[in-house]
Amino acid sequence: MQSVLIVDDEKNTRDGLSKALCDDFDVFAASNADEAIRMLDAENFDAVITDLRMSGKTGMSVIDKAISLDHKPVCIMLTAYGNVEMAVEAMKRGADDFICKPVDIDKLEGTLTALLKKREAQKLERSEKNERHIQTLRSKNIETANAQLCTSKNDFGGIIADSPAMKKVIETATIAAKSKATVLITGETGTGKELIARLIHAASPRRNGVFLPVHCAAIPDNLLESELFGYEKGAFTGAISRRIGRFEAADGGTIFLDEIGEIDAPTQVKLLRFLETKTFQRIGSNEPISVDARIVCATNRDLRRMVESGEFREDLYYRLNVVEIKVPPLREHPQDIPALLEAYTNFYAVENGLERAKITPAALVLLQRYPWPGNIRQLRNFCENLAVMHAGQEISEGDLDEKFIRPEEPAEGGGQKTYSKKENELKLIEEALASAGGNKTKAAQMLGISRRTLHRKIHDINQNPL
Fold first, then answer.
1. How many angstroms separate the CA atoms of 273 and 268, rounded?
2. Potential cystine with 442: which of 17, 278, 404, 436 (Cβ 3.0-4.6 Å)?
3. Are residues 262 and 400 in the same domain?
4. Which pLDDT tens digit goes with each residue over 386-434?
């Protein structure tokens, strides 16, 4: 229940108003202005109803206190007919309304209810404006970060792609961008699916429209439909004003539905209808609304298997999967790791105003061999830690965590294989020699050891093979 503070030095008035309002509100009472001010300091009230003329301080001091609070309550002044001018002055100073004594209870209840509803609608509107502002800032920050990450001659819209696998992804995304086709982006968590979606939008005729990401798993099932399609005033408890949904907000642009495999059955039905008719209805309305929004989806789940198990509608799956883009895990395109490491360490060093950390060739070989189970997101976090905790330092293989030195890789049968120190050493030497074209001097430099030490290690391995 909403809380109301009644302030009046006449006990009969306080008790009468409290009794009249207690069924609909949580009512508190104060017998003078000083007591009311102490209560306002101690509690957050939704409304204050105060008499103007009281012994001691007047009700004007209560109004002044109330309107100075961060949690500003609705303020109603009670006054005799002879003090209307002072009540008007109170409204100029921030009171919301005044009612003349003797108090008409019905009028007071109606005024109080209307003012509280108006305040809630204003709060909701401010909240939505703030949310839109935050989303705009977040999008601009992402675009700025992407632009700063474009340090490789082979990057595409902020996506660093030196490997054939990622170049193929870029090519497919660029072709798909020219059409109106729905795109399904699949891949493990952290592979950069949202960046691919942003590339599709940026390369499309809709590039000047909004790109609106929706992370479906972050929105509770009972709110997802209203978030996507909006609702009318009175559609359900708490719907005190009309609200447009994300599809309506994305008109003329692109809506990116991340983690599409998490949407519930009712929302799947409504999404399917939109894909078939390009129309939808707000909750609480029968009026169809037509918008021109391009849908790009992403998931790290196996939607085919979900269709087979009945978790995901088959007809919706085929509607979404007009063009599928599979983003490979980072372990399948390790050629991109050096450029990614350089780009992100540069970015986080600049962002934090620090000198860039440098990675030695031997450490780079280890990092390139590591399977990165968290993919690019894990690599990015690693680079941020490196930039902050090792600013200006040179990172050698000895400075790396044990997991980079002895990575666990999948073995046959789905188990995990742990490589020994000798096996790791052999792999490093083989990779360094391959990168150096068989030149042992260059390979030794890459490994950070002398040519003589490299010869000794090769000799030891030949004498004691695995």
1. 9
2. 436
3. no
4. 999 999 999 998 888 888 887 555 444 444 444 455 666 677 787 778 7
CA 209 to chain centre: 20
Q: Which tokens belong to 216? A: 């479906």
- DSSP-derived secondary structure for 108-167: HHHHHHHHHHHHHHHHHHHHHHHHHHHHHHHHHHHHHHHHHH--STTEETTEE--SHHHH
DSSP string of 16-30? HHHHHHTTTSEEEEE
The overall pTM is greater than 0.70: no
Q: From the centroid of its chain, how far is CA 187?
A: 19
176 and 306 both lie in a single domain: yes
Residue 325, both tokens: 């883009």
Give me 4's structure tokens.
């109301």
Task: Write the CA distances from 374 to 168, 181, 399, integer angstroms.
Answer: 22, 30, 21
Buried-state track 282-317, b at ≥16 Cβ within 10 A, e below 16: bbebeeebebebbbbbbbbeebeebbeeeebbeebb
**What is the count of structural domains for the chain?**
3
Q: Are 234 and 272 in contact (CB under 8 A)?
A: no
Residues 437 and 353 in one domain: yes
Tokens at residue 421, please? Answer: 């120190």
pLDDT of residue 370 exceeding 60, the answer is yes
What residues make up the domain containing 78?
A: 3-120
Rg (CA), the chain: 32
Tokens of 425: 């050493």
Question: Which residue in the block uniquely carries the two structure tokens 């008409």?
Answer: 104
Confirm whether 141 is domain-assigned: no
Both tokens assigned to 145: 């970060």
- What are the tens digits of pLDDT across the range 57-70? 988 999 999 988 87
Q: CB neighbours (10 Å) of residue 42? A: 7
Tell me the one-letter amino acid at 10: E
- Record the tokens describing residue 140, joined without a space: 């601009």
Q: What are phi and psi of 2, to 5 degrees?
A: -75, 145
Q: What CATH number has the domain bearing residue 63?
A: 3.40.50.2300
Q: Is 215 helix (H, G, I), strand (E, B) or coil?
A: strand
Do 268 and 300 fall within a single domain? yes
Position of tokens 């992100």? Answer: 344
Residues 75 and 201 in one domain: no
CB-based burial, 192-229: b 16+ in 10 Å, e otherwise = bbbbbbbbbbbbbebeebbbbbbebeebeeeebbbbbb
Sheet holding 47-51, edge to edge: 26-30, 3-7, 47-51, 74-79, 97-100
